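Feature request, filed as a ticket because there's no other form

It would be nice if the structure record came with a short human-readable summary line next to the tokens. Right now we just get the raw output. Example of a typical job, pasted below so the devs can see what we mean:
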Amino acid sequence: MNKPVRIAPSILSADFANLGNEIHACQGADLIHIDVMDGHFVPNITIGPLVVSSVKKITQTPLDVHLMIQRPEEYLEAFATAGADILTVHIEAATHLHRVVQQIRDLGKSPGVSLNPATPLCAIEEILPELDMVLIMSVNPGFGGQKFIPASLDKIRRLRAMIEATGKEISIEVDGGVTPANIAEVYKAGADTFVAGSAVFSTSNYSLTIQQMRIECQGTQS
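Raw output as currently delivered:
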């Protein structure tokens, strides 16, 4: 079965002095990916709800907000109010994950759960049917521009099999080192949503790069 292809440029790699124009240049994107880092859960500090609110005002593209923070349950309402459409939390940071997922649902947002490279898939086995999306980190989180971890492909394949066993439509998003050169392989493994930071924002034509990445995936469909 052919899966959809969703490209989500990550503004972590954008020029923040020119952020509005950077986002407008991402024509053809399916989502705008926003990495929120607190300097505790990951060794970097990025942005908060005020930036999400500003981005929401300038684009109709859904906002995919990835919370790489400790105690995510304390900030869900703020990011939901700011305009997040998808709220993804890390299983490693959420002590009571089922409660956090329910909080996201109650806020009217789409819940996702992310796993770091060393976190096994069995950690989400019980919560999987409650999710709209699982985000597989294919690099260790914290910084953009890292190389894709090859072992992630097998993890994606196994996750796709787990999802199919639930009988539900759950997206697999992949974040870290996805480029036009490897996106087809990641798509074939079972992913359907692709975060692309430097792969998009280091090019001269963001829209063309997004289109190229989509075509690479579609070329694998039978």
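Something like this underneath would help us a lot:
Helices lie at 19-24, 49-58, 76-82, 97-106, 152-166, 183-189, 198-201, 206-218.
The chain has a mean pLDDT of 95.
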